[in-house]
Amino acid sequence: LPTAAPGQTPVRVMTIAGSDSGGGAGIQADLRTFALLGLHGTVALTAATVQNSLGVTGFHEIPPEVVAAQVRSVVSDIGVSAAKTGMLASAPIITAVTEVCTELGIGGNGAIPLVVDPVCASMHGDRLLALEALDTLRERLFPIATVVTPNLDEVRLLTGVEVTDPASQRDAARALYDLGPKWVLVKGGHLRSSAQSPDLLFDGSEFGEFTHERIDTGHDHGAGDTLAAATVCALAHGYPVPDAITFAKRWVTCGLQAAYPLGAGHGPVNPLW
Ligand code: PLP
Questions:
Q1: What is the pLDDT at residue 190?
Q2: What residues line ligand 1, using a CB cutoff of 6 Å?
Q3: Residues in domain Pyridoxamine kinase/Phosphomethylpyrimidine kinase (predicted)?
Q4: Which phi and psi (to 5°) does residue 150 adopt?
Q5: Domain residue extents for the chain
Q6: How far apart are CA 194 and CA 188, in angstroms?
Q7: Ligand 1 center to 222 CA (angstroms)
Q8: CB proximity list for 65: less than 8 A, separation 6 or greater
Q9: How far apart are CA 241 and CA 149, in angstroms?
Q10: Which of 91, 166, 176, 269 is most buried (most C-beta within 10 Å)?
Q11: Which CATH superfamily is domain 12-257 in?
């Protein structure tokens, strides 16, 4: 991606997401990717998780009106060219985020692309979104998303479709598309039966496949966040969605290849170009 000359203001992007105290996922992963790619990252914090390499033991939610106020404050002064959502924790936060994004032209038919990474749980199975918030996610936020990027566990929670092969992955993409986003990326990294990590992109008419050999590092904490963050960076530079996904897939693949051990559990992806 192009970078600003020293002293020049870089392209600005925003993450609306939770903090990972272990520094691997969440806003920490997003800001790492934004900075490494030469963009200026801004944050609307939704929750502070209590987390290390072994898992999430709790989280504290930010009041919904404070989440919305962070977005409004940044956009009115610093500006954003693209944004993403990650952990949103609760239905009231999802509602506040949907309303402030609509007000500011983020997502929907506005000029600012919005990547919705529908974070529901950590890789250890710790819940990061209240179950009763799934309806709000589907009914409020999905219709204004430029692209949604669920993994297969999130696909099952959101659509009831159990993806086991290419045909069911297409069914899942259609079901998600019917919820209103402009594009759907069904990430296949959790398809354990495959030696590949097949991601499927759908815009309501055509399917695009992005496949890479599975990289089993044991250290892939924050991989989903990193993919969505790199997508936001490419969209902010004006890439069309398929090109942004191609770029982001390469970025996260490099991150998996350079992932490192940390603590006694799972280490983070380490994006290096
Ligand atoms: N913690 C936060 C704040 C996150 O946003 C996420 C994922 O988006 C996670 C933890 C879980 O990451 P992983 O599934 O890579 O463990």
A1: 76
A2: 17-18, 20, 25-26, 49, 51, 86-87, 119, 122-123, 128, 221-225
A3: 20-270
A4: -75, 150
A5: 12-257
A6: 9
A7: 6
A8: 96
A9: 12
A10: 269
A11: Ribokinase (3.40.1190.20)
